[in-house]
Amino acid sequence: MTPETHAPVASPAEPATEASPQPSPPSENEAPRDNSFNIPLHPLRLRDPLCWLAAGWRDFRRAPLIGMFYGLCFMLMGWALLGVFKHAPIYTLALSAGFLLMGPFLCLGLYRVSMKLEMGEPPRLLDSLLAWNQRLSQIAIFGGVLLILEMIWGRAALIVFAVSFDGMPDFAGSISKLLDPQNASFIVAYLAVGAIFAGLIYAISVISIPMLLAREADAVTAGLTSLRLVLSQPLVMLFWGFLITVGVVLALLPGFAGLVIVGPILGHASWHAYRAAVHD
């Protein structure tokens, strides 16, 4: 009898081992995360700062009440600064200069107004007052950095006075000493200290706050991008700093009253400086 032949029984297939998903490589079209070195900057012309002022004047005319509100705030802050520090003239001089250089931070609401006008939307005062709420953490970090620089500047200026004179003069006495040719070494040292801190604050802040408002960038990236702009195009940015300084000084002469008009114009113009310099 022939033995039955049976077909070999196939063993049950083992379950296939599921491969762990591999991370997909970044797409070539995916935009890299912002950092201070991959944000392109536009080449600027020497006459561009005048165009920024003209654009700032147009924005002020389109929203004059909001602009004058901020200008009035600047004037009142100037009065308060002189009142609080009238018994410490050296701090008044340093902090006044620093206060003026902190314009990009203080003009945040004006940047918001210019942004709305650029988008074709009507600006509102309440919306401009709450502009900081969108990027609170990064703006607070940057404001803290500026505050620390202001404090160091004031301390350095105090040291210059202390090593140059026996005591601290009153406000009138400090002005007379600044203007006395016999104190040439003190004048040179004081102006040198002021120039270093003023230049540093200006360089890291000239477009930083508008940049924080306009795009998803951190405070370090914004500050370094501003510094890169100043170092890469120094003539244009020095001219812009000169125009800001002249405008503010002239606005201070009639008891800070000129800031009611000049302050908002410079604030709006700073927004246009950012838009002209940084490629979005």
Describe the structure.
The protein has helices spanning 48-62, 64-84, 89-101, 103-106, 108-118, 125-129, 136-164, 171-179, 184-205, 208-214, 219-232, 234-252, 259-277. The protein has 280 residues and is mainly alpha-helical. The protein has one domain (54-277). It is globular and about 60 Å long. The protein starts with 47 loop residues before the first helix and ends with a helix. 35% of the residues are buried. Residues 1-32 have low confidence and may be disordered.
How would you describe this structure in keywords?
mainly alpha, 280 residues, single chain, 0% strand, globular
Order of helices and strands: HHHHHHHHHHHHH
How large is the radius of gyration?
Answer: 28 Å
- Poorly predicted runs of 5 or more residues: 1-32
Total domains: 1
SS elements, strand count: 0
Arithmetic mean of pLDDT:
80
- Helix content range of the residues, please? 55-70%
Largest sheet: none
Strand percentage lies at under 5%
Gross geometry = globular
Class of secondary structure makeup: mainly alpha
Number of helices: 13
User: Termini, distance in Å?
Assistant: 91 Å
